[in-house]
Amino acid sequence: QKEVEQNSGPLSVPEGAIASLNCTYSDRGSQSFFWYRQYSGKSPELIMSIYSNGDKEDGRFTAQLNKASQYVSLLIRDSQPSDSATYLCAVNVNRDDKIIFGKGTRLHILP
Amino acid sequence: ETGVTQSPTHLIKTRGQQVTLRCSSQSGHNTVSWYQQALGQGPQFIFQYYREEENGRGNFPPRFSGLQFPNYSSELNVNALELDDSALYLCASSFARGNYNEQFFGPGTRLTVL
Fold this sequence. Notes:
The complex is a heterodimer.
Chain A: E1 4-5, E2 11-14, E3 19-25, E4 33-38, E5 45-50, E6 54-58, E7 61-66, E8 71-76, E9 85-92, E10 99-101, E11 105-110
Parallel strand pairs in A: 2-11
Antiparallel strand pairs in A: 1-3, 3-8, 4-5, 4-9, 6-7, 7-8, 9-10, 9-11
Chain B: E1 5-7, E2 10-13, E3 19-24, E4 31-37, E5 44-50, E6 53-57, E7 64-68, E8 74-78, E9 87-94, E10 104-105, E11 109-113
Parallel strand pairs in B: 2-11
Antiparallel strand pairs in B: 1-3, 3-8, 4-5, 4-9, 5-6, 7-8, 9-10, 9-11
């Protein structure tokens, strides 16, 4: 069973600090990795995608990928109350378009 | 550019009934994936359609079926509804096939089975 694991949280971070969200996956053949943000009662919104080892930065967001360790993370700098949401890690499997999601980590930014 | 749309927004059915959910893909996208999201869980992959054919299926029974139309819009049909089918149903569209396409979600349909 191919899986994506995330800590369910909640993760509480003071406003202005760095939030670090982590995800591990079991399929060594995975090549595409995504982070989605989901506000309560809303659908997931794609915020980052990463395909190769290393870091990818987009504004306040940085995705980090380590395929050897089967680990992907998301850093949010200068956290804002509007960043409070559930963050879903998603990974493709079987070298096709099927994406497996983790259960998500609830992030709470403390004003 | 038109985003992914879904209808209806909310739906209430009783056990044993049948339901059809609809999705219009984002302009330029030819692939539609359907997901079921129970409360407090991540989205679970139901199936995917590419160019009107099923292209992969998750661990869902045959009473979950789908269609994709020539304009790439899609339907999800669920027969013999069960209480556990109550969930948010999400449609996501993407372009082409392969490892690098990103999926964009519609607003979802909230299904309640009584």
